[in-house]
Design goal:
8 strands; two-stranded parallel sheet; Rossmann fold; 5 helices; binds S-adenosylmethionine; alpha/beta
Length: about 160
Amino acid sequence: MIGLDLSRGMLERARRQTSPAIGAQWVQASVERIPFGSQTFDRIVSGLVLDHVRDLPAFFLGIATALRPGGRAIVTAVHPDMQRRTGPTVRFTAAGREYHTDGTIHEKADILTAIQQAGLSIDQFQEPPVTEPLVARREAWRDRLGCPALLLLALTRAADHHYDH
Ligand SMILES: C[S@@+](CC[C@H](N)C(=O)[O-])C[C@H]1O[C@@H](n2cnc3c(N)ncnc32)[C@H](O)[C@@H]1O
């Protein structure tokens, strides 16, 4: 298992939360230039990174290239409708410090085009909204009730798709 992130701090956080028994490797790099050869991975999971990446085609082509034929990817992102409400920049506090990370709003149509151009097929495309149970846990989200919160994508690299690089 390999964990990749641009931020050394986030990699360190992930390392602390992962059992050493898994033997994971932690790699500081951009998902826009995945530093592994083609057809390396059976599975790729990308959590809430897509909305920080500017180059959509590079994001999905990188994932498609790194997957083995028939390999699958799970990609999650903050939904563009939610980003429009909250602003694309994400602010959070960790270990008592304030952080912010710039975000980019990608429209659904552009995401679908980039997925298709990368030779990936879509097995699942879900847009779960903010629900009452969520609002019960976080009252500040009441004004977002019903708004799609996330994009959840399950993708497969076709067994016979050929890449030039
Ligand atoms: C909202 S956090 C999600 C963290 C983690 N993936 C998770 O699901 O809990 C967004 C992460 O994207 C990382 N990130 C932003 N741009 C990136 C890029 N071009 N390549 C790799 N990671 C990136 C940030 O460093 C940050 O850790």
